[in-house]
Give the backbone structure.
Amino acid sequence: MTRITKRRIKKVGLPSETLVYTGERPGGRVDVTLIDYDEQTFEERTIRSADECVPYRTKPTATWINVDGVHEAPMIERLGECFGLHKLVTEDLMSVVQRPKVEDFGDYLFIVLKMLTYDEKAKKVVPEQVSLIVGQSFLLSFQEGVQGDVFQLIRDRLRTGRGKIRKLGADYLAYSLLDALVDGYFLILEKLGDRIDALEDELMARPSRAIVEKLYHLKRELLFVHKAVWPLREVIARLQRRESALIRETTTPYLRDVYDHLAQVIDSVEIYREIMTEMLETYLSSVSNRLNEIMKVLTIIATIFMPLTFLAGVYGMNFKHMPELEWKYGYYLVWAVMAAVGGGMFLYFRRKKWM
């Protein structure tokens, strides 16, 4: 049973709109941070109660509220009430097995995507669901809180006022978060590419069953990355088509740039998957070649010993009236014939380059 299936079992039999956390994060506090800004002002604070967010919903400045941890239903439910989120949206926020998607609710956009980080110690890709609620002047981001995030550079740009981010609205902030997530995919591909190169060198040097197991696990990780990035292509495409009035025309070129980067990620994933398939075929071919070489050597040995076995069988019958049995040099002659036959066949096989 897959990990995703096990997570979905938690909601079996429950009515829709029931808030159930389907992740694997152990219990702990939920960290909520708020950044409110425009071109002239900047405010950053930690939120202790969801009620503290209410005044920021109608402020003319842009507000980014980041929730790190979605396992506390009361906090998620109260934030949903503060910003007028649909009950099904708050349900999806806590169900962390969603497929990347975008839904338009009129006043806000609901975007689900996957953030991928690389665990250096475990040597594996760690997935984390990130949900974005993009409104007219606010953006809510919800993370599982498994292993940090990739948004620190955006926070630094907001604090220092570098670039356009404080001059533009929540839709540009949403683009910035999407861009950071897609850039994070390149780092994942770099790590996986290094592992593929090392595995390829090992495969050429000493192919073994252990390499096949490594190939299998690496191929599964690539498949998981493919599942995370492939649906995101349609999400970005819908956003850049400006099907919602919340996405301004000035943001469209930036979304096109993210789409191009995502296309490069998908191309790289496909190339890596083809390389993995070729590596597996190379392993099977090398094993087959080794087996053929072994069978060839055994066949040659058996062929050489066939006439020798015949001679040994003939003179091992021990009939009374065999002329050679009482001949003084009969034993030595048989050995000479056997050596000549075996040596002659060996030289013939060498001349034919069969061995």
